[in-house]
Write a structure and sequence with these properties.
By secondary structure, the chain is of the alpha/beta class. The chain is built from ten helices and eight strands. Strands 1, 2, 3, 4, 5, 6, 7 and 8 form an eight-stranded mixed sheet that branches.
């Protein structure tokens, strides 16, 4: 389970750093928008958009450009992110709300609900997708990106090896677990099944992105500077000895051309409501 208080703190604290370090998230945004726009309606038909996890606004800005006649409701859990985005985007067509999507109620319905690199922070993703799908207008689209199960596979391998080396019996995780594309696609189909008389089309795709750092410490710094450090409630504290061994193993075993490699497994899901 994600500790939402810690999540708010981490992202608020690092809101001013986020754009400098969120290279993969920005690439995911570009892929997400292309995926959303494939075979979709004329932009003038889109009146209301809900963006979840608006962060510093790089997706919000793209939505403003793509749908200049639409109203956008941009939500983020972190007060620091809302302050940051308000300093960058001055547009009467956008309303900003600071809140936890999983606890919020909405009175409006939407033609597009979109989210980039945020769904991994939900504790009840099935219920959340159910709620969001219910907010779609006929022929509406719910489109989101998140991270898949192979994300940070190098770090996960390091944790596993050091745990074995130190004969640690209890589980020690490097972060939260993620879905495969098939698992998440199935979850989306189950969450939207029989909700309305509409038919539902669930589409998914995946791709891998890689970042390279001078060393493992720089990799850890990059994670921290985006606010994406571990916010698990049940995360067991690891000793300094454990972390030092993880860093050493990472530097020695996951290096390419004098840089250490970090894998990002990016998932993209699109749920379209099709009126029968």
């Amino acid at each position: 389970m994600i500790d939402k208080k810690q999540l708010k703190l981490h992202f608020s604290k690092n809101a001013s750093n986020y754009d400098e370090y969120a290279h993969v998230q920005k690439d995911m945004k570009n892929s997400l928008v292309k995926f959303m726009m494939q075979n979709n309606k004329n932009n003038t038909e889109v009146k209301n958009i809900l963006e979840i996890g608006c962060g510093t606004g790089y997706l919000t800005s793209t939505l403003i450009d793509l749908f200049p006649h639409s109203h956008i409701t941009a939500v983020d859990i972190a007060p620091g992110m809302i302050t940051e985005i308000k300093s960058k985007i001055k547009n009467d067509s956008v309303d900003f709300i600071c809140g936890d999507l999983e606890e919020m109620n909405f009175n409006n319905t939407y033609d597009i609900i979109i989210s980039n690199a945020t769904f991994q922070w939900f504790n009840h993703i099935h219920a959340t997708i159910e709620k969001l799908y219910a907010l779609l207008n006929p022929k509406g689209i719910l489109c989101f990106s998140t991270f898949g199960k192979h994300t940070f596979c190098e770090l996960n391998e390091c944790f596993k090896k050091v745990r074995e080396e130190l004969s640690i019996k209890e589980s020690v995780y490097s972060g939260q677990s993620f879905y495969s594309l098939n698992e998440l696609s199935t979850l989306c189909k189950e969450a939207t099944k029989n909700q309305r008389i509409d038919d539902v089309l669930v589409e998914g795709k995946e791709k891998f992105e890689y970042e390279y750092f001078n060393n493992c410490n720089d990799f850890f710094t990059s994670i921290k500077k985006t606010g994406a450090n571990n916010s698990n409630k049940d995360n067991k504290c690891t000793s300094l000895t454990f972390i030092k061994k993880v860093i050493k193993y990472y530097n020695e075993n996951f290096s390419e051309n004098n840089k250490v490699k970090a894998t990002y497994h990016c998932l993209f899901l699109k749920i379209t409501s099709i009126t029968l």
